[in-house]
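Possible regression after last week's pipeline update?

I re-ran a chain I had predicted before the update to compare outputs. Posting the input and the new output here so someone can diff against the archived version. Not blocking, just want to make sure nothing changed silently.
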Amino acid sequence: MVKINPRKINHIDRMKYLDLLWTSITSLKSREETKNFFKDLLSESESIMLSRRIMIAKCLLENMSYEEIRARMGVGNDNIAKVHSWLASGFGGYEKAVREFNKALDKRGVNKIPSQPLSFEWLRKKYPLHFLLFNLFLDKKPDK
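New output (post-update):
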């Protein structure tokens, strides 16, 4: 698709296009409907590009440094700075999206498993019955 300069589209047409987009998105009722809509709307590279912006925002909101984000994701400082400026002067969309994403991960139990796969702690959390005795002793809070 050809890239469009928003300044070259008259205000009324621009508002019609954006209204169509926002209304279409808000009409979706489930995660599956939303996923299918965006799969039809965006190319895979566009979806990944948008997802990476959200991940950069998530990292910034978790107080990660530019260097940590750059090393983890392989993005440049200019991309991180652009997302950082949107976080600072935007409309709160990134914050809400990241907050809801974290809630969804918590519901799925994803945030409860440590991120270091195959570590002892990861195995202990992933397979609690196999490590029942360890868990009983390691998770017990000492009496004060």
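Follow-up from reviewer: compared with the archived run. Residues 43-93 form one domain. Marking as no regression found.
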